[in-house]
Q: What sequence folds into this?
């Protein structure tokens, strides 16, 4: 069974204080690892997709990296507007033809890290 | 594009009542899905659809029904509401062939309380 564990559960930073969020995963063949941002009372908003170990992607103050067992979301010089819950999800590769099971590519989500950045 | 829209935004039901949560997308996405989000549990898949007329169960399907008569719409029906179904419900859609890894787009959510 695919599993995703995010840590820490909550992180409080001062504005400008860089840090990292962790996403550890086990999956039967990784098809993709996704990072989402969720603001209170809203739906998750897509940030990044990572496909293979060693891959990195950046967007403004955020950089996501991937190894064979975990992904990190690095936040450089965060601002109060970066405060949100950050969700990690993995998608397994579909089974080979004839092996049975769904080929839909279900996402398994972690519980999220609540990030608060104080001015 | 409106993206993924959901109605209502808030709903209160009494135990045993039924209702339908509406979801629509205007991106011509093949795949649509319903999740529920509970504190400490993360997002859990209820039902999904890979195209009009095709639906399947996710992790937590009991007490919910879905149908997909058009590409755009994917309603979720609660047959007989129970307090355990108090949650925030998100609809999502994505494009792509089976097994592809395109990102999902989520709606704004419906907050449901069952008393």
A:
């Amino acid at each position: 069974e695919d599993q995703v564990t995010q840590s820490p559960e909550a992180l409080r930073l001062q504005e400008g204080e860089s840090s990292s969020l962790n996403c550890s995963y086990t999956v039967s063949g990784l098809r993709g690892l996704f990072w989402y941002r969720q603001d209170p009372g809203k739906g998750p908003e897509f940030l990044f997709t990572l496909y293979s170990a060693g891959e990195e992607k950046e967007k403004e103050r955020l950089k996501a990296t991937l190894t064979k067992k975990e992904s990190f979301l690095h936040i450089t010089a965060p601002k109060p507007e970066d405060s949100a819950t950050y969700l990690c999800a993995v998608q397994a590769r579909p089974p080979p033809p004839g092996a049975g099971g769904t080929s839909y590519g279900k996402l398994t989500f972690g519980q999220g890290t609540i990030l608060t950045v104080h001015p | 594009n409106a993206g993924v829209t959901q109605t209502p935004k808030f709903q209160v039901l009494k135990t045993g009542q039924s209702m339908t949560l509406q979801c629509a997308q205007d991106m011509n996405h093949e795949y649509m899905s319903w999740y529920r989000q509970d504190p400490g549990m993360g997002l859990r898949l209820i039902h999904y659809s890979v195209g009009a007329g095709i639906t399947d169960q996710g992790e937590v399907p009991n007490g919910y029904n879905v149908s997909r008569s058009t590409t755009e719409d994917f309603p979720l029906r609660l047959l007989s509401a129970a307090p355990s179904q108090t949650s925030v419900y998100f609809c999502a859609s994505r494009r792509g062939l089976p097994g592809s890894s395109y990102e999902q787009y989520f709606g704004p959510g419906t907050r449901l309380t069952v008393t």
